[in-house]
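A common beginner's mistake is to predict each chain separately and then try to dock the pieces by hand. The better habit, illustrated here, is to supply every component at once so that their relative placement is modeled jointly.
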Amino acid sequence: MRFGIVVFPGTWSDTDCYHAVTEVLNQDAQYIWHQESNIRDIDCLVLPGGFSYGDYLRTGAIARFSPVMSAIKKFANDGGLVIGICNGFQILCEAQLLPGVLIRNDDLRFRCEWTNLKIENNGTKFTSRASQKELIKVPISHGEGNYYADSKTIDTLNNNGQVVFRYCSPSGQIDAESNPNGSIENIAGIVNDQGNVMGMMPHPERCCEEIIGGTDGRIIFESMIDSVP
Amino acid sequence: MPVSKEILDEIALKQEEYDEIVRRLGREPNSVELGMFGALWSEHCGYKHSKQLLRTFPSESPYLLTAPGQENAGAIDIGDGLSAVIKVESHNHPSAIEPYQGAATGVGGIVRDILAMGARPIALMNSLRFGPLSEQQNRHLFNGVVSGISGYGNCIGVPDIGGEIAFAPSYSGNPLVNALCLGIVRSNEMVRAIASTPGNILLLAGAETGRDGIHGASGLASRTFEEDIELRPTVQVGNPFMEKILIEACLEVVKANLLEGLQDLGAAGLTSSIVEATTKGGTGFKLDVALVPRRESGMSPYEIMLSESQERMLLIVSPENVTTVTNIMEKWDIPCTAIGEVTGDGIARIFEGSNPVGAVPGGMLTHPPIYEVFGDKPNSIAELQNYDLKSLPTPADAPYDILLKLLASPNITSKEFVYRQYDHQVQTNTVLPPGTADAAVVRIKGSDKGLALSSDCNGRIGYLDPFVGGALAVAEACRNVSCTGATPVAITDCLNFGNPEKPDVAYQMVESVRGMVEACNSLNVPVVSGNVSLYNETKGTVIYPTPVVCALGLIDDVNKAVSSGFRNEGDSVFLLGSDVVSADVNYLAGSEYLEIVHGLVAGQPSIDLGLEVKLQSCCRSLVENQVVNSAHDCSEGGLAVALAESSIIGNLGFSGSIGNRDHWAPSLFGEQPSRVVVSVSKDKTHQFKDICYVSNTPFVWLGTVTSGEFSISGIIDGSLSEISSAWKTGLSIALGE
Amino acid sequence: MYLAKIYVTLKPTVNDPQGRTIERGLKGLGFESVKGVRAGKYLEIATYENNKVTAEKQINDMCNKLLANPIIEEYHFELVQTQESNSA
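With all components supplied together, the output reads:
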């Protein structure tokens, strides 16, 4: 399967994602520059982490106007698989491909650390390799990962099974202590109602190899690979 | 026309130096020319007081690809057609004035030094010093510096893999902010900071030029801190986003082989950048300041030539490549403008439009007068050295309470509060992240190799004996790297001292460097790059002599790299480097114990470099043969703290003995150098002993790794959870978080 | 009581990367006439202080000590009376 990895000025997880899907998972991949307005022969789009346009004004605010964004919207509306990681999640929210918004961490500090995630829905195209309520360890690295949406939106997300990951304790408790950034209901990742666009703050591409600390991120990429015939 | 003292003060030149300029030029310089002299003859650019000392550093190595002081950073061949490029630099003075921006632009500057070699920056580190956190001003500086490093480093996608942070009263109001960057470049793509072909074009790429940091080089870095206030407008604001795209664009240009030379714009901006590149190439240049893109209107030629606006690079390009280069810059949305060209006459010619505004032979600018520094050992130091440590009273606290106190002390406590604000994982190469090992280790994708990095310097030891302090900084940085299994291949250093014109400071400089040189020679590791920061004084207080040493190690199989945490319950724990746990009180000299418990900085520290060499080679051999499961050097806090840290990091405990219970203070908390705590699986103890015998390294059995109990000789009887809690919360408590 | 509406901006001569990047974003969207953007902070502070002169002095103090970084930033503010001051 062929991944397209979108590169905005200021993106920095592009090469990490490329390495994970090509070298570790043996898939094809190509970079897609933010000025591109056509996306062809791609099975899955990755919007990687970074600080597109320096995250000035608001995270993702300037990136959403890049030419590639309308192509991404079309790709998504046609049912294409899209994953936004960290800054990519923020951009998907700004572009309204996902509901809600990511605001500053509640302690106002950047956090780079391993988190435990509970997989709340293993029925998605991004989590089919996992068992329901499985716990995985995935690192975060962000200053603005505090997921916020109004209560109606949160209800909808909960009722539709659109909350994919929540931060939890090593034993799976979803509690305030395990919430690294103040996200509502410990939300770490969500999927759109069609189930083909997912955003998550943690970085699965950073945990695909034992030597750098873990391999749980593979579950997500491998699920995506499975979902494309 | 005689120049006024005010003008000379402004650019930090002495009257004699001005007279020398007039003598060399055969006339009075005009203001633009004088500004250029002031910048390049500053300590920061010209190394007036340190060049003589820097020349004594060993720079011989079959793997070293750069001549000392000739390039923006040192490059070392690491095999497979790759080179590692490394440098550390200070941003002390800017950080004292505006900690966030000072530290942020320090990171930006060192990254561009690495970029100027054509290398991709792959890791950052910081060596930081502050005054005690009990003072509000120091907490402000601390938080500002950490946020600045975090804000800038995280945005550019280069992992910050650790470093060190220490506290002492001498750094109050004069923090040390030393930033290190490591890069990787294909050896055949390495670029030099040189302009040797007349007719080649000078392209200025990156941010527009504003009135930022004018006189940063001469003013800030050459003065002490009494006169801060009026220097404040020189503060620069960094733009990490511009830096990030500048990195990508420059590397694309480098890959396409379109450059003759590449140079960053740092201290003294355009002036030092172009003058250094052309004089090195034996050429001159002409430059039109009117062509320099400006952020503000009404800037004078003087201001344009001396502006220290951040995120700018100078590209030296042959005329036929200019269009291709500017197209690449345009793709990244980076302003890029031809501002002049290389000439064959060796003269730096500045124009504003068609008006000449300055012309000076480049060689005059890059050859400032060199001063020898003469040191005198102050009597007060001799008194401290002769302090009778045998006379110390028995502390009121029990050994375990003292251990908990030391574990929570800001110098020893976990720095997780800091490094979790740094992205230490981006680029997915970080094998041993901060907080897990004596040195951070990154892998090199596409090979089995890894690079280890550690930075060290114990200012307190240096204060008591600068020779030992210098030697120890080198020994400890290399020891830390060796503990992971890597072989030290290069050192980069940042020499932080007070005013070199004072005899006691000069003594510290001379002795520190002598100690470093001796240790480098013993350990056979070259100094490949570095930086000097002098005049680190505030309100009459001189900082501890702080020659920060960063060691780079190479490990052939990164899969074997060892952390400092115990790994298996039941493993045997040995002390390497001594056949006994010494109860000699002299090892309390300059220790954390002495300062925390007795409020003293005293004693005569020492180091045995012969033993150090054996120990480090033994360590590497133990890792290479996969005999040890963990290795952790004993430094601040001594053996008890090292055992506690190995326990906490491994989430296990320790039970064992130290021999002499009666003299527990030196045994538990003495800081005898050249010692490493290792843990060994039971079935490998024979192999362990064999390797120690072969390398003639003494060792002594200490005890066993437990599941959670932490006990030593019946005088310490605690638990993993207690020591862990003390160590993990120390910094937050000190910060009042 | 007064409400202070405080604007904190970088000094005109200090580099404003955020403003520059927003400016480029706007131009990229076709707002070619944009001449410059400076980004800053806006704060509202409500105070019980009833004396305008004292309130002004206090807000100035707050700005100098905490809200603005005098090394790189400048500020201005307006005071709006929010209630009948002083019932006494």
